Amino acid sequence: MFTDGTLALRFKLHEEGESLKPNFTDLGCKSVHAGHLFDAVVSRGKVLSEDRKTGAMNLKIRAGRRNGTLTSEQQRILRTKKKVFLAKIKTGTWHEVAVHVDGNTISADIDGKPVGSFRSKGIAHPTKTLVRLLVPKTATVPCSRPAARGTTAGLEHEHCV
């Protein structure tokens, strides 16, 4: 269980359309579907950060999306719950991503360079109990670890290449 911190991953996306999604959760949070709090979706050329706690996975908003009854206010709220950042991520190449969680802010570095940060209320959820690594197609992730902010030390070891 943690509140703030950094997750570092070494990864390779093999084909166009692949992505890697660290999904931060609190399985005890009953106001959202399946504990979803927020994501950092890494794909070719970009990183998407999304607050799912106060956005798409909030039970009221999720129900409205499923049955077609989203209010105009809920639609407006959903538009503010994610942000895309351009990043130099190529398929067939090893990269490192560091996802930082600081209060209500999630930020990402690719290969040691900051690509962007996003602030939203749901990111500040006090307890994150699990990070799921969701890969809809194929990606190679030889290792991951918690890291001190500003470092990816340890990802260069031979078992991580």
Architecture overview:
- The chain starts with a strand and ends in a 15-residue tail after the last strand.
- It has a single domain (5-160), classed as Jelly Rolls.
- The protein has two helices and ten strands, in the order E-E-E-E-H-H-E-E-E-E-E-E.
- It has helices at 59-67, 72-79, and strands spanning 5-13, 19-25, 36-43, 46-51, 82-86, 94-102, 105-110, 113-119, 130-134, 139-146.
- The strands form two sheets. It has a five-stranded antiparallel β-sheet, with no helix packed on it. A five-stranded antiparallel β-sheet has the order 5-4-3-2-9, with no helix packed on it.
- Helices cover 11% and strands 43% of the residues.
- It is mostly beta strands.
- Strand 6 and strand 7 form a beta hairpin.
